């Protein structure tokens, strides 16, 4: 049942379970985003229900994160992992399960914030049936993504149509960087309302900690030159570029060069394929002995990895925002990142890290080397990087902006209620001289 004193709102994230472990296949930035804004919005006074698809029959259906914030896993298709490109046919069932939940719990969500195009379809369908305010965050844009891959999946056309519809029909789309806003206008539609609110990071967790202590904790030697990758195993993340650029600088550092790769699920899924491919390249380049696959690491442990590293590399071919960049910079570790998407917005090149053209192995190698060799540059970047993230990207600041947006949109919707024309009344007096009103 709804708490009578709180305004319930729903966040829908069909494939990005906010209660899931992060780093495995298809569990990354979106999960982190939804969970963090959910928790922070609840702390700001909303009652937040986050809906996702149940992917395992052993998973609890409800995970309570804090008194007014919970994840609700609902049935849509088999209770097993399904790649997101194959999920669309289960969306009508997701919609039904959501509506049944609303009825059963007697909650009406006047505002729904959807995440990724699959959830957008759900939001648009609900909006057709009832008067809700609909907000959307894309997380990834088909129009950009399909530009960077050779073969489009079968679902591509449907996705592009829904991504256009959500921009034009929702009450507001949240772009997380000016680059995303530009892409939306250029590639999706000139219609619709866009509000620029970035992603964030937990600056209490990701902050400046001592490199010496972090290395001691993780068992790395002080003399090692540590190059770090954190993220999913997906070809668009460009791990191959990183590996090949490390091979280029191997002769400069010899055995002192250490490549640490964090993330990826251990099972036989598509991300396992990408890992296998990367391992093969490492062997060919004789870098395998100097590479550590740390596996999936939780956010409690991750600050130590960032702090222990000399540089964190984000070699994505395309990156809508890129949480890893701000997490690393918050911990004071400069980044070398592809000059694409949200990374152009978060990384201040030459100040908090270095931006280089995507897929450019030589440029990545040179940039990594510059940071590894120039202690003064690395030290200056360390301070600026952490201060910059603290100032611009705390989850709390981000959630306050979202909360204000929700309030504004809900207030507007009340003002836009159809005006009821009351009959013109005239006051007259009855026999007892009391005022009565008549038409
Ligand atoms: N992540 C994690 N553990 C891992 C690997 C990744 O917690 O082993 C987290 C990482 O800290 C970040 C998110 O996954 O918060 C990745 O988000 P990003 O926006 O960089 O990439 P996306 O996954 O959205 O493409």
Average pLDDT, rounded to a whole number, is 92
Query: Could you say which overall geometry the principal axes of the C-alpha atoms support?
Result: globular
Structural category: alpha/beta
Number of domains: 2
| Physical arrangement of strands within the biggest beta sheet | 3-4-2-1-5-6-7-8
| Radius of gyration, whole Å | 25 Å
Largest sheet: number of strands, sense, barrel closure: 8 strands, mixed
Output the CATH class name of the largest domain. Answer: Alpha Beta
CATH superfamily of the largest domain: Glycogen Phosphorylase B
Low-confidence stretches: 419-439
Give the CATH architecture of the largest domain. Answer: 3-Layer(aba) Sandwich
* CA distance, first residue to last residue: 43 Å
* CATH fold-type name of the largest domain: Rossmann fold
Number of helices: 16
